[in-house]
């Protein structure tokens, strides 16, 4: 089963760009997960368990490295076309 998730990352620090870029770079290490980033969020798509395991691993890593960081996630079952734009 495929899963599409949208993640917004809000590091609670003055230099918030570095942790966001770091998080996105870590997502890119997963060959089995498709990623698209826009100005406000990152969308990922892949097999359900792979996406959930990646999020659990990388959100924990972000908390350990950067401290207090808020993640807002939305999930929809299925594979959405991440290249779609209006």
Can you walk me through this structure?
- The chain has a four-stranded antiparallel beta sheet with strand order 2-3-1-4.
- By secondary structure, the chain is of the alpha+beta class.
- It is built from two helices and four strands.
- Strand 2 and strand 3 form a beta hairpin.
* Strand content range: 25-35%
Radius of gyration of CA atoms, rounded to a whole number: 13 Å
Mean pLDDT: 93
DSSP E strands, number: 4
What low-confidence regions span 5 or more consecutive residues with pLDDT below 50?
none
| N-C termini distance | 27 Å
Q: Give the ordered list of helices and strands.
A: EHEEHE
Q: How are the SSEs placed, and which strands pair?
A:
Layout: E1 2-11, H1 17-27, E2 34-37, E3 42-47, H2 48-66, E4 69-77
Antiparallel strand pairs: 1-3, 1-4, 2-3
Helix pairs in contact: 1-2
Q: Which descriptors apply to this entry?
A:
single chain; 86 residues; alpha+beta; 4-stranded antiparallel sheet; 2 helices; 4 strands; 35% helix
Short description:
This protein has 86 residues and is α+β, with helices and mostly antiparallel strands. 35% of the residues lie in helices and 34% in strands. A hairpin with a 4-residue loop joins strand 2 (34-37) and strand 3.
């Amino acid at each position: 089963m495929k899963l599409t998730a949208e993640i917004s990352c809000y590091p609670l620090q003055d230099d918030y760009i570095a942790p966001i870029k770091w998080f996105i770079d870590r997502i890119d290490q997963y060959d089995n997960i498709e990623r698209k980033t826009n100005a406000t969020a990152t969308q990922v798509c892949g097999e359900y368990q792979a996406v959930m395991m990646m999020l659990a691993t990388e959100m924990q890593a972000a908390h350990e490295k950067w401290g207090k960081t808020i993640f807002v996630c939305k999930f929809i079952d299925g594979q959405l076309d991440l290249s779609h734009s209006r």
